[in-house]
Amino acid sequence: MVEDKENTASAGQEPVSKKAAKKQAKLAKKAEHKADTAAALAANEAAGDSAADHAAARYGLSEMIQSKDKRSEREFVTVSDLNAHVGKGLVWVRGRVHTTRAKGKQCFLILRQQSSTVQCILAVGDIISKQMVKFAGNIPKESIIDIQAKAVAVPTKIESCTEQLLELSVEQIFVISQAKAQLPLQIEDASRPENADDAEGLNIRVNQDTRLDNRVLDLRTPANQAIFRLEAGVCRLFRDILTEKGFTEIHTPKIISAASEGGANVFTVSYFKDSAYLAQSPQLYKQMAIAADFDKVYTVGAVFRAEDSNTHRHLTEFVGLDLEMAFKYHYHEVLHTIGNTFTAIFKGLRDKYSREIEAVGQQYKVEPFKFLEPPLILQFAEGVAMLREAGIETGDEEDLSTPNEKLLGRLVKAKYDTDFYILDKFPLAIRPFYTMPDPNNPMYSNSYDMFMRGEEILSGAQRIHDPEYLIERAKHHGIDITKIAAYIESFRYGCPPHAGGGIGMERVVMLYLGLDNIRKTSMFPRDPKRLTP
Amino acid sequence: MVEDKENTASAGQEPVSKKAAKKQAKLAKKAEHKADTAAALAANEAAGDSAADHAAARYGLSEMIQSKDKRSEREFVTVSDLNAHVGKGLVWVRGRVHTTRAKGKQCFLILRQQSSTVQCILAVGDIISKQMVKFAGNIPKESIIDIQAKAVAVPTKIESCTEQLLELSVEQIFVISQAKAQLPLQIEDASRPENADDAEGLNIRVNQDTRLDNRVLDLRTPANQAIFRLEAGVCRLFRDILTEKGFTEIHTPKIISAASEGGANVFTVSYFKDSAYLAQSPQLYKQMAIAADFDKVYTVGAVFRAEDSNTHRHLTEFVGLDLEMAFKYHYHEVLHTIGNTFTAIFKGLRDKYSREIEAVGQQYKVEPFKFLEPPLILQFAEGVAMLREAGIETGDEEDLSTPNEKLLGRLVKAKYDTDFYILDKFPLAIRPFYTMPDPNNPMYSNSYDMFMRGEEILSGAQRIHDPEYLIERAKHHGIDITKIAAYIESFRYGCPPHAGGGIGMERVVMLYLGLDNIRKTSMFPRDPKRLTP
């Protein structure tokens, strides 16, 4: 699916000759004709006989929209704007058939447009024929249709639709794109609330793999529509807040020449006659941008981890929200900047995405995300003390296991009433070689993690900016200095002290909403077992 | 350089024992001591004898900034804000030594901070000793220093600095991060105007490879500082303008299971026990997002092309600004949206990035970018006619060669006075199989390219949204239907007509500024011969 025409030319496709083009035109004509015929057939079939159909021109299968004309006279109204048209003239609406049911002389059809739904009615009379009612009742679910209708106020609320105070009295109906009659999953099933009352176990659930295998359908549920709009909001807020703070966006290469830390968990790429790797993080490049005087930088982009981890929170490819910042004297200048960025993101989501949060809440149990301002900062040692107080045995220099991490999250929530906190001063022993040791206590380091609902979503640190000290620390870790020579070299031309961190975007969205699986917040997730769609 | 601690643990690094930690602390102490000693030594050496140095406490090599204390009493002033401090008290400034020269009892030092420069002066007297002057004169270029100084108005403009009306009278000077004495390139050389008067050929030029090999230094030139800030602006404008128009940002996978168009020009990745590919474009995923009701989407991300093209405008990895949009009846709804987005980007750059454009212009010959509002749209056939009028032989269904593309750009500029235009209705024969044919003329298609200064920067089209017609067209192109089954399948559940396009970010920046090589607008470029840094 390459767009660049230079590539297209070299993709080995034969150019179409004029003769072939003519044949093509014929085929297109034929397809058009077929559509018209199908419409006629559908109408006749609906009639069940050859009785004259006074509504014949008002419904059918539309020919494929090939940009033949602009039909600029048709002004379309969105479903959520329909209330402004109640009691007024005819409007055109395009949407999907969510459900449709013809019964006798009436057809009730629910039209869906993204997360909005509206009831449509066709009743036999002067305008509508019984053939037309039958046609409408037979349109496969998920087909895209154009209707011309009047918006009419209803006396009792329509509970099954988002537009509860009106319905559409349809006068014309055309199928724009017809869906298969058999769908691999029903939007209704895929949208069902997780905690719905289902004592008899009759409700069909759609499992994760079926959803992901048919992502185009699955993404149409109101919850998914909301999740990915909120995800776009997280990125937007991240960028806007940092831009406001004077950060510059950069782009870092994904294909790199050397696996930075010994080659563990890294994907290999064939690069012409050579081998290369996919970057596990943009860190080296962010640091180079700092050494190159960009002062404060961020980057949003794909990050790759060849870990064979099949958990609820690991992906092999995810979106990294990374930032790096020069500071004057203390890495807390950076730590506070990152902490405040999170606070601003949480506020932005709460204030600007309340509709999306509510939509997700209709299907999944979403507990409101709590945060403090300014954010809570605990020392690693304090965290250890809290765990010990709760009866957990854990060493001073031991990393937090996933269960301990989660428990600590619960303890912090109970004590401080916040779903977000920062753990500062991790033990030096469990951090990478380039982490700046704590000058005041050799057991610790100038590094931090940040947590949402008890799960780590950012890891960061002050980096060693002195090349000699970096060599010393790398040797101490048993790292082959020759393999990181280029990295060390970038600090030899003067480099300000700096710190930063990397955030997993999908994790932030998952944990903000309190969802149980990261595959719910990656549009097309990649894990060791999934490479499609 | 992995940040996730879970990875760190698995990267095979031994945890540091307490004993080792103590040793570590000792080493750090030693390094500190070394620094102090070095400062003392430097001072003594400067003195040339053991004479008492009354300024000894006011200069030296600072110990490595390890976040020991916050020194919050030191308020730093940026160079560009210094004019507000003229005639007032002492201020602290951190920056790089751009040049320094001690001569007798005085030292002239130019301090650089990103693109700003200011002259600093140290003169022997009550505050400054001759040792201190010598010390300042010996600081290697590009070192980062902290100075405490008074801003003083100067009677005659300092032409060599961006701050021309003031200089800094230094009272304290400390080296924060010392650069190597020998630099692989001089910022001065790398910043020299391309068209500088150099009759004797004495000026050193820095070639592209030397620049890229030492990118951390090269990026410090005022032109590069400006180029990458403007590039961030292009992305920001692209996103903001589309968000304003109701688009949603999405993220698409870079690792894909099948090479979409026969496997030409695609990088292969080892994926656990399997093989995978790097995406050449997000098109399939954008289209799936449209089929999934996101209506209007864009994505900014890495795109990979395994083409062995070593030209001024090809990269193997670049940043794609991609968008896709459902429309009602005519793909021109999308074409106009894209065209207007470009107009808004050009206006945004002109209005908000004039300083950056000017900075680039100091080094490279930048002709102002001209555009029309609304943008000029020509038919492909009109373009062919213009070329023929200029004496070029070219077929009706022949693609534009690069020289013809450039010539057409010049002809359009001469006739319409615009550096941006849209060429609509490309011949069907030279476009990919999924391009919608023109319903009114079988020789053409509903596809378009957009050009800046005569080079293609966007290619796009209405895509075929009807699965049967798509199969027909694929077969016509001799494509194995089984290999694109998943792609076709995504249109079987109802899909609105849609169109879109893909933009090469680096090309937009290169052509907007009129630069001659795409490596100038990629921070860390990748081409068939370059994988580093």
Structural class of chain A: alpha+beta
Strand content of chain A: 15-25%
What oligomeric state is this?
homodimer
- Most strands sheet of chain A: 8 strands, mixed
Give the C-level CATH assignment of the largest domain in chain A: Alpha Beta
Across the major sheet of chain A, the strand order is 7-11-12-17-16-15-14-13
**Low-confidence sequence ranges of chain A:** 1-16
Mean pLDDT value of chain A? 91
- CATH architecture of the largest domain in chain A, by name, is 2-Layer Sandwich
Number of helices of chain A: 15
The percent of residues in helical segments of chain A reads 25-40%
Query: Largest protein interface?
Result: A-B, 174 and 173 residues
The CATH topology annotation of the largest domain in chain A reads as: BirA Bifunctional Protein, domain 2
Q: Give the number of domains of chain A.
A: 3
Rg of chain A from C-alpha positions? 29 Å
Q: In summary, what is this structure?
A:
With 533 residues, chain A is α+β, with helices and mostly antiparallel strands. Helices cover 32% and strands 22% of the residues of chain A. In chain A, the strands form three sheets. An eight-stranded mixed beta sheet of chain A has the order 7-11-12-17-16-15-14-13, sandwiched between helices. Chain A has a five-stranded mixed barrel with strand order 2-3-4-6-5. In chain A, strands 8-10-9 form a three-stranded antiparallel beta sheet, with no helix packed on it.
